[in-house]
Amino acid sequence: MDARFTAEQDEIRRTVREALAKRCGPDDVRAAVRTGAGYDAALWTTLAAQLGLAGLALPEAYGGVGCTTTELALACEEVGRALAPSPLLSTAVLAAPLLLALGTGDQRAELLPRLASGELTAALAVPGPALATALALVDGNRGDWAGGGRAGGVQARQADGAWRLYGEAGQVLDGHSAGLLVVAAHAGGFARSRTLLFLVREGGVRTRQTALDETRPRARIQLRDVKAELLGEDGADVAGALAAAGDRAAAVLACEAVGAAGRALERTVEYVGQRKQFGRAIGSFQAVKHRLADVYVQLQAARSAAYYAAWASARGETVGGLALAQALQALRTAAAEGIQLHGGIGFTWEHEAHLYFKRSAGDELLFGPVHRLRAHAAGAAGLFEQREVAV
């Protein structure tokens, strides 16, 4: 394994960082999240159409760049560093891989080029707080998480040759603004219930929800007799496709969290070098140095794990959940220490420190928590299996 980045990968990181430095400061982030869409449409055009991030990991045959998960993860590290609100995660990381894996030839040919160009955004809608379960990050996803049986979740019924959806999905990332919904629903009734994915192009009631982390806008989707199109063919391995997409998403999210943690640490180091007490910078105090050193060590370990997960994901290995757990813990520590060491100003809404803390807490609510990510990874690896010992 060659751990060095290629010239192309370094160029991707540099280009994205420069673009975000000009257009995505703390004030820009606050202004963007207060718009109806929850993000800056002009910045999204720059990221998707001009820099090609939306299609970075899609094949060239569908209008993409043809890179791997590694390049997308490195770009998202820079997006996380700036806390840039955009539909990149929901479109390129969650929805597009499912379309690529399960879609029919016609569905891929019609939709993937539009997603790659940024013209069309998409969102993955799963019932209730089941996103992490649907992606097989904290539990097995072959159960009834989509709303099994006759009630609850989202139900799909077929009548007159067309599919209709009924039910509700909450906490859908970018669900209020996405042009395309990929909805997980149960079909087949109580006795033969199975989870399928459907494409919803219009219809339903979408309500933007109040979120702890405003940089990740989400919505409640209510579906009442809404026309839908089956994604792919009936009988496809939906659970397997979701689990594969979940592992890749975890690797990307780990890099994004590492980027946010790195920036939070940088801002804190800058501040303690300027703030003075007793005639000297507080950054010169040994206790402060030790606290920041601990954050730095944790951050570097998380960065190494995230990079490895991104590299391994492109080769079919599944270690994204563990890397995400380590990255989320590093972000939580960096954000909390940042608030503490900024003193009174760090607790104010006007300071950017709280944005990183909210990102940490919000991501754990959506994709974690950390202890469940680790427990599921340990269970999948068989670390706690009981083995008979010969006496």
From TrEMBL:
Q: Which lineage is the organism of this entry classified under, starting from the top rank?
A: Bacteria, Bacillati, Actinomycetota, Actinomycetes, Kitasatosporales
Main EC class the enzyme belongs to: oxidoreductase
Protein name in UniProt: Acyl-CoA dehydrogenase family protein
- For the Acyl-CoA dehydrogenase/oxidase C-terminal domain, which residue ranges apply? 251-370
Q: Where is the Acyl-CoA dehydrogenase/oxidase N-terminal domain?
A: 6-119
- Tell me which positions the record assigns to the signal sequence: none
Pfam families xrefs: Acyl-CoA_dh_1, Acyl-CoA_dh_N
Q: Would you say which domain of life the source belongs to?
A: Bacteria
Q: Which residues cross the membrane?
A: none
Query: Which family does the record assign?
Result: Belongs to the acyl-CoA dehydrogenase family.
Q: What is its EC number?
A: 1.-.-.-
Q: Which molecular-function annotations from GO does this UniProt entry contain?
A: oxidoreductase activity
- Identify the cofactor(s): FAD
Recite the UniProt keywords alphabetically. FAD, Flavoprotein, Oxidoreductase
